[in-house]
């Protein structure tokens, strides 16, 4: 009888030995990893691997082929032009004409918002769309001046030069900013550093856009109420003060009446179009119709003699060259470059967001870096031809899409139409009332305020919502720049808080599996008596949280021990397994705190084991000689750690 | 024959069904977790749970007991005093006297560095150590003025008031800064916000201390060379310019000779002590011996008549009250509070670092928050009694420890000794040469420069080393504040870069286990054909990296597919499992990028599955309605995901 029993024991023993041997071998896997790439190497590697995707550097054999493929990569129009059919052009022509009818009044209004003469808005709707058509990859995007960029430009540049007192000097500064913005955009694209435009989080953008829309709306009160002495500040309080004080003086109601009635007209057309999708062209041409009607009314009633402000002279003709107006040696160059950078990022963020959303609908991929290069060149060349910063417009792109555009050709149609108007029709706009431009801008603003998305952000993440509200309040009550700064700061502070928050969670074994889970997340998880399995809630164990985490773990262990004593559990805690699988990195303070933990546990008769370290982390622990200090108790997984203690 | 086979099949089928049923149930575990606490709740919870540990708020029954335990918690001296034995006092007396002999010359020297009259240094060695003894928990720390804080104070306060032109006004500002620093320190302790002192990473501190030591050393050239017109700036270049221009003029070599010879004397005593541990007292009393000898030499040779600068009059007597000198309404209050905050943090960082390192040696726990309260009150009361900011000194604490101190009583002995000297001996210091003070300060500086630790940091983490060097270079070539700012910025930038670096790793199954590991970290890991298992290298998927990560994964999948086609593998990739176990958080941009990935895969006939989401992440994915979009393919682990696809 003894023999089989003995046998079994031996066999069990052998099995256990074998198991242990395997376990030891697997511990060696953890400890003897190859040297990981350094963080700097990795980041440089990322940059290089993206660099290699730059079309110009991707030479293939055959000089002619090569040249043509280079040209094709730089000018995507060469690709899609080959398959361009008359049927496409029919659609693009219709879309382009619709676009132009919306674009002409908007361009004049936005130029007004940018504190430039009206023709500069029209110029900006001619050259940049043409350049973009040659180089861009989006098929729907409508290029030209937009409200937010116009506001940004005027609010920042007028701190350097007063647009009323020195319109020519102010215009030179705006052109220089345009040049810088284009250069930055092209550089971002060429160096594949498109991630820079990601620095403005979605939540921050929603708040910023809504704030900017309200600020732009308030600026329109100038035109709508015919106020002559308006403020240069953009915050709500300054603007409302001016509006309030203007009510004290006698004021002319005609401007307001004219603006409001046409605003209501445009809003009604939009309402109709929403009811019946086929009427999409109605709100698109409503602004032009309003301009024509209002101009006629003023012309016929001579209302300009009765206090209605009119646009007056618009300089006609093609964009004049402005190369000699760029200012690279003056006291403001640094400041202009800074403004250029901010404008470049906001313009790209807006354009790529709008481009992507329509590309997804039509199911094609938008190359962010190519877009940036295209936008950059269109603004650089724009700055040579009297344009200010152009980008993709939310509202006009939607109209372009609804009008059934097929390719970027619709932008060409639009540019040509605007060009013809510049040549022939500017004289007709002499009597256009300023109030009508204000109402056209106002009618485009609701699209910038996305209350639904803000609610959604609130639902998903409270801290993101804080960034959103921060940007909104900052833009509204301080300046546009402060709003941006607040949003970026909150967004990055959130990253820091989330990655170093000093928390731990207790893990338990999930029944019928080998997996371990947070006992709060998975209430069915079972703790093993005598063992405490913990996981850090932070992604880094570093100077900023190492002490806190150490004290947290100590406190937790002490409480768990008290608890198990109270429950008269058979076993008090003997082993603490620390799962560090989610630690991305550890620094000297973090290693020191682990060492201190180990010493504390050791003096209390407990053992510390480390499970599942990542590559970088185990490498650093080895460098700091931590592994021998804790008796080599580093394991591949929690399960392996448990097995090694024969639990 | 058919029957058993059939049976087996049925049984297999049943088993598989059962298995699948289990798997489905476990998917429900993942999806039906309780609602996780919000980040804000969690952070507030952390604060509250720490608040509860404040002794004053932890009332127990019994008013008398309660009061006494409150008193004991506030004044730890009441606890250790009860067990204080004569034998302890013998050790403390010896240590205290040794400490005093080092402290008196250092205090005068540091007061000089802080651009205050010598007696203020001595005052600072009387009151703060006494208060600390009542409230502090460290047994070894030696309290008093220290070099770095003296430098910080003088370099920042002299921008507001010239210490040469208006010594009284300057002194008032220093007192006010001391008050602010104390208030901040006490507040940090009371509100358990000790994590604030962790904001200066270990690496940054090493660099900062080394830079400050060199700057302090350069400042000593004034005393050592007897330069009368020194610069107020602290950067290397300004100081070396002044020194260079002073060489152009005729100069007096006596100061230099005197200072250097005694510096060499002190360094020799230190060298002897390092050779023979029993001679630890030799470098401790060497400064006092130097002062006595040098003073005697000057007195006997009348060297002060030959150009040797001497200390001259030191005001004797006990600390005068300075309550009425604090300035809370002046133009500088905001600036003074800012300086107070910086000084408070640096002082605490130094004191707690030195206190902890000795507490670890003696094996007791140092309560960081209690320490901060003690330091805070000692500086507040110090500011009422003509002291400037005191903290724990690196060099003197080491001497105190070597001299065998048992409790904080040695600080009392030291304070009493300094007090007696103030009453009786200040007249004897009239002829003390300034150069000797410079050499005493210089001799204490090498302890602040830790080249070994810098090498260690370089070895373990290159980015940490960058923070270290940034602080060093900033302090050396710009100002102390800029050095600190650079260090803090680099440290936090590192946290951001590590937690959002846009990388992915491919996982494979580790042989003989159920675990999956990075194929680069574990070269033995085996990939399953037809399945691509990926894990993010970042801790957050958010606005800043979502696009990048999405493009990375797409590129990787395309490459893997090409690769498997090249290898003529049986299966192309059909399933992409994304292990997101290390994602601490996700925001709307992150979710959008996952959705886009899913759509891309879907249109290429691949399936995306998510494995092992954390609590917060799955909660947000559910809120954003992501789970049904990917067909509910969210699993507990990679293994479960594989099982569900029957691989």
Automatic annotation (TrEMBL), chains A, B:
Report the InterPro entries cross-referenced here: S04_transporter_CS, SLC26A/SulP_dom, SLC26A/SulP_fam, STAS_dom, STAS_dom_sf
UniProt key word Transport: yes
Location, primary (coarse class) = membrane
SUPFAM superfamilies (alphabetical): SpoIIaa-like (SSF52091)
Q: How does it sit in the membrane?
A: Multi-pass membrane protein
Q: Which domain of life is it from?
A: Eukaryota
* GO MF term (any one): secondary active sulfate transmembrane transporter activity
Q: Which residues form the STAS domain?
A: 541-645
GO annotation, cellular component aspect: membrane
Protein keywords: Membrane, Sulfate transport, Symport, Transmembrane, Transmembrane helix, Transport
Q: Where in the cell is it found?
A: Membrane
Query: Is the keyword Transmembrane assigned to this protein?
Result: yes
Q: Which CDD domains match?
A: STAS_SulP_like_sulfate_transporter (cd07042)
Residue ranges crossing the lipid bilayer per the database entry:
141-157, 169-191, 203-221, 254-273, 280-300, 339-361, 373-395, 401-421, 428-449, 469-493
What name goes with this protein?
A: STAS domain-containing protein
């Amino acid at each position: 009888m003894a023999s089989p029993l003995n046998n079994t024991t031996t066999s069990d023993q052998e099995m256990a030995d074998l198991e242990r041997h395997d376990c030891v071998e697997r511990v060696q896997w953890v400890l003897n990893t190859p040297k990981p790439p350094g963080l700097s190497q990795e980041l440089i590697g990322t940059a290089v691997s993206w660099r290699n995707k730059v079309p110009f550097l991707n030479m293939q054999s055959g000089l002619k082929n090569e040249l043509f493929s280079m040209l094709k990569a730089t000018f995507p129009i060469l690709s899609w032009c080959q398959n361009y059919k008359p049927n496409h052009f029919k659609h693009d022509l219709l879309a382009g004409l619709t676009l132009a009818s919306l674009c002409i009044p908007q361009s004049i209004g936005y130029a007004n918002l940018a504190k430039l003469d009206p023709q500069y808005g029209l110029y900006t709707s001619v050259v940049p769309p043409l350049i973009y058509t040659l180089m861009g990859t989006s098929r729907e995007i409508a290029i030209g001046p937009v409200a937010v960029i116009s506001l940004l430009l005027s609010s920042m540049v007028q701190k350097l030069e007063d647009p009323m007192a020195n319109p020519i000097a102010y215009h030179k500064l705006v052109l220089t900013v345009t040049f810088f913005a284009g250069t930055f955009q092209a550089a971002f694209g060429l160096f594949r550093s498109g991630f820079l435009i990601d620095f403005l989080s979605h939540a921050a953008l929603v708040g910023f856009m809504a704030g900017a829309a309200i600020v732009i709306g308030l600026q329109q009160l100038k035109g709508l109420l015919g106020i002559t002495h308006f403020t240069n500040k953009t915050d709500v309080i300054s603007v409302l003060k001016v509006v309030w004080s203007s009510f004290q003086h006698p004021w002319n109601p005609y401007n307001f009446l004219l603006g409001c009635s046409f605003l209501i007209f445009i809003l009604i057309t939009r309402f109709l179009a929403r009811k019946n999708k086929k009427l999409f062209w109605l709100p698109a041409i409503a602004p032009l119709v309003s301009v024509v009607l209002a101009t006629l009314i003023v012309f016929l009633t001579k209302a300009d003699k009765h206090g209605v402000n009119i646009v007056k002279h618009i300089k006609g003709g093609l964009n004049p060259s402005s190369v000699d107006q760029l200012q690279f040696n003056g006291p403001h160059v640094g400041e202009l470059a800074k403004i250029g950078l901010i404008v470049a990022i906001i313009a790209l963020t807006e354009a790529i967001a709008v481009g992507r959303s329509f590309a997804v609908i039509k199911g094609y991929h938008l190359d962010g870096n190519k877009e940036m290069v295209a936008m950059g060149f269109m603004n650089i060349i724009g700055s040579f031809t009297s344009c200010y910063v152009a980008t993709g417009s939310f509202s006009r792109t939607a109209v372009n899409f609804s009008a059934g555009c097929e390719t970027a050709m619709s932008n060409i149609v639009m540019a040509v139409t605007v060009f013809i108007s510049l040549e022939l029709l500017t004289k007709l706009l002499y009597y256009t009332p300023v109030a009508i431009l204000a109402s056209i801008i106002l009618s485009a603003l609701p699209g910038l305020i996305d209350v639904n998305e803000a609610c959604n952000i609130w639902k998903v993440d409270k801290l993101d919502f804080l960034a959103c509200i921060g940007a909104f309040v900052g833009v509204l009550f301080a300046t546009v720049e402060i709003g941006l700064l607040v949003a970026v700061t909150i967004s990055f502070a959130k990253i820091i808080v989330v990655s170093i928050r000093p928390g731990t969670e207790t893990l338990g074994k999930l029944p019928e599996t080998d997996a371990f889970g947070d006992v709060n997340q998975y209430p069915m998880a079972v703790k093993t008596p005598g063992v405490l399995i913990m996981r850090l809630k932070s992604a880094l164990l570093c100077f900023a949280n190492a002490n806190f985490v150490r004290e947290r773990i100590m406190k937790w262990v002490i409480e768990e021990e008290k608890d198990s004593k109270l429950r008269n559990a058979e076993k008090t805690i003997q082993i603490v397994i620390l799962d560090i699988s989610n630690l991305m990195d550890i620094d000297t303070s973090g290693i020191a705190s682990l060492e201190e933990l180990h010493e504390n546990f050791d003096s209390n008769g407990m053992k510390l084991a480390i499970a599942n370290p990542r590559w970088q982390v185990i490498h650093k622990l080895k460098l700091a000689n931590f592994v021998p200090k804790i008796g080599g108790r580093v394991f591949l997984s929690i399960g392996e750690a448990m097995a090694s203690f024969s639990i």
